[in-house]
Amino acid sequence: RHQLGLHCSDIDIERNRDPVMKYLMLIALFVVAASATDNDDPISQESNVEYNGKYHYHYELKDGSKATQDGVLKSVNADHNGESVNGKYSFVADDGKTYVVSYTADENGYLAVGDHLPTPPPTPVSVLKALEYIRLHPYKTPEQKQ
């Protein structure tokens, strides 16, 4: 929730008795207060955390923003536990369009997908050929002389 604060320690209203100045300060205060919006107030909200580390949350705000996330603890290998997360969020941008991002995060990293997100250029053919050559001709460690 947005909070609005006004600190007037540098203004001594008792010494400044000019009624026009007080009137202008009052108008400025009303303008600032009126510009604060309640668009980030929640419409719906849910959260669930289970004893085994599995969780889910979802919320939706008045401004049209939404978010959902599910997570679970998992064993990555014998020495390491990790978390796997899947989620999605959306928001309405200044251009009036709704943007949606879906994501996963786990031991392999974070991957976000959205129609508005940039995509990498295609891999050049020369790189693909080099990778294929490496796959077909793996490096062999030379034997050491005794």
TrEMBL record:
Keywords: Cuticle, Signal. InterPro entries: CHIT_BIND_RR_consensus, Cuticle_Struct_Prot, Insect_cuticle. Residues 1-36 form the signal peptide. GO terms for molecular function: structural constituent of cuticle. This is MIP29918p. It comes from Drosophila melanogaster (Fruit fly).
